[in-house]
Amino acid sequence: MNTSETATELHALLAPTPPMGWNSYTCFGITVREHEVLANARCMAAELAPFGWEYVVLDGMWYHDTGPLTGEEPWGAEPHPLDDYGRLLPNLRKFPSAAGGAGLKPLADAIHALGLKFGLHLMLGIPRRAVELNLPILGTSYRAGDIADTANPCTWFEGLYGVNMSHPGGQAYYDSVLKLFAEWQIDYLKVDDCGLPSYQSAEVEGIFRAVECSGRRIIMSLAASDEKSTFHAEHLKRHTHLWRVGVDLHDEWPQLHKLFDLLPLWMPHTGPDHWVDPDMLPLGVLHLRKMACDESDPHASNLTRDEQVTL
């Protein structure tokens, strides 16, 4: 990076148009494996890259041990692998190339070799196990117990506490996470759980600062917004490149139809580098394996061809 470039200039206009790509969740849930990510990346490179599709996004629980890879085990069943500084590491049964401390860089390298870009899911917060072990925060004298906001846990995944951003160790922790992700060469960060129980503005700002200081051009996406409230729109536009509105979108016409009421509320706030995201496109083969605690139901999209074109 040119030393005359500010962090903001480095990350300016990363998304002049809406980022397009593939996300592992709707097909594979929390059980996706390395060879499946690469198979979809190869398909994208061959069939979709000429039309502007470029991001291959590994969604949640890439660090979670899902037993025999059916997804049947509770999300908190096994301790999540951590490094010495409380940062999550890939599950080696799912991502064998991560062995020997390589992390997700070998996977990112393989995706980049196809001419594509690599995205990764991040849950807001710090792993509870890091707090229980009171691990140190990289580059500081602080420890995980100093920065954990135990009164602000993730409400739907029993593995994380919020981060107290009023403590200087809070920013240092997120800086260390993005430092690791930059070493893995990620290009896209999907940050989850930013809107429950309320919009987590301080942590959103902290992660955005960490992204800007990572030394790498990384698009930041949030799952953040109340379905119909645009109250935080200006904050979102300043601290992320795109943000989710509405619920998880499945292949059901009533959900799709509801977007016709929701999206017009957000249209005044969307444009280059700040895009409204109505969630993934439920097309192709869906629910191949269990989606978290839901039953698997492998099928092609239930939307008719006309509904898919509308989507």
Mean pLDDT over the full residue set? 90
Write the element-wise H/E pattern from the N-terminal end onward: HEHHEHEEHHEEHEHEHEHEEEH
- Structural shape: globular
How many strands, what sense, and barrel or not for the largest sheet? 7 strands, parallel
Question: Structural class per helix/strand content?
Answer: alpha/beta
User: What gap, in angstroms, lies between the N and C termini?
Assistant: 40 Å
Low-confidence stretches: none
Spatial strand arrangement across the major sheet:
1-2-3-7-8-9-10
Q: Helix tally? A: 11
Let me know the number of strands.
12
Beta fraction: 5-15%
Rounded to an integer in angstroms, the radius of gyration calculated over CA atoms is: 19 Å
